[in-house]
Amino acid sequence: MGELRWVEVGGRRRPATPNLCPGTKVYGEELVTVEGKEYRIWDPFRSKLAAALVKGLEKLPIREGSKVLYLGAASGTTASHVSDLVGVRGVVYCIEFSARSLRDLLISCGNRKNMVPILADARRPEEYRFLVSEVDVVYEDVAQPDQTEILLKNAEVFLKRGGYALLALKARAVDVTAKPKEVFEREKKKLEKEMLLIDFRTLEPFEKDHAMFLLSR
Q1: DSSP letter string over the chain?
Q2: Other Cβ atoms closer than 10 A to 155
Q3: How far apart (Å, rounded) are the C-alpha atoms in residues 180 and 158?
Q4: pLDDT truncated to tens, each residue of the chain (217 aa)?
Q5: CA 45/CA 29 separation, integer angstroms
Q6: Boundaries of every domain in the chain
Q7: CATH code for 43-216?
Q8: Cis peptide before 61 (omega within 30 of 0)
Q9: What does the alpha-carbon distance between residue 82 and residue 22 come to, in Å, rounded to a whole number?
Q10: Backbone phi, psi, residue 101, to 5°
């Protein structure tokens, strides 16, 4: 499928992904047709990755044919757009700890054959190592105090050399007592010990006290 487009919605530019399953919605998103192809509007108020794109993220390393490890897939809102981008030649391994969220993902995204739902703890990549191949991108949205460590551990196991990682960091989940800016700086130093930081964007006004880190290995 593959290519991200920008479309005008209510006077604002919004990202949109080519609908892998034309005519179907995942979370009530708007569908539009551009040059004969159906696209799903990617809502930055519902997706941190969309918010990062609207805030000017330098690069989106997810493209047609990519293999993506998605940590914290929840009910599949963002993961479904990643599914659109990687297309039928790609795969999205969706790791989710909550059985209820994974069930919701199966209901909303069950017809997307490139999504592989896996019930597992992202802190324990050894639990799903036999199910996941080497990937081009690791994406994490897990609101836990050890978010950074979870990303680095999974990148070490699954991310290919030259691959990319995206971390949607929730400052208040890491340290509720510190200012978000201080948390971002502290976690940034941890990340830079292991990976190359390419870009960093705070996600206001779409998500409070969140930031997106783009890294490469």
Answers
A1: ----EEEEETTEEEEEEE-SSTT--SSS--EEEETTEEEEE--TTT-HHHHHHHTT-S-----TT-EEEEE--TTSHHHHHHHHHH-TT-EEEEEES-HHHHHHHHHHHTT-TTEEEEE--TT-GGGTTTT---EEEEEE---STTHHHHHHHHHHHHEEEEEEEEEEEEHHHH-TTS-HHHHHHHHHHHHHHHSEEEEEEE-TTTSTTEEEEEEE-
A2: 25
A3: 29
A4: 568 999 998 889 999 999 999 999 999 999 999 999 999 999 999 999 999 999 999 899 999 999 999 999 998 999 999 999 999 999 999 999 999 999 998 888 888 999 999 999 999 999 999 999 999 999 999 989 999 999 999 999 999 999 999 999 999 999 888 999 999 999 999 999 999 999 999 999 999 999 999 999 8
A5: 11
A6: 43-216
A7: 3.40.50.150
A8: no
A9: 15
A10: -65, -40
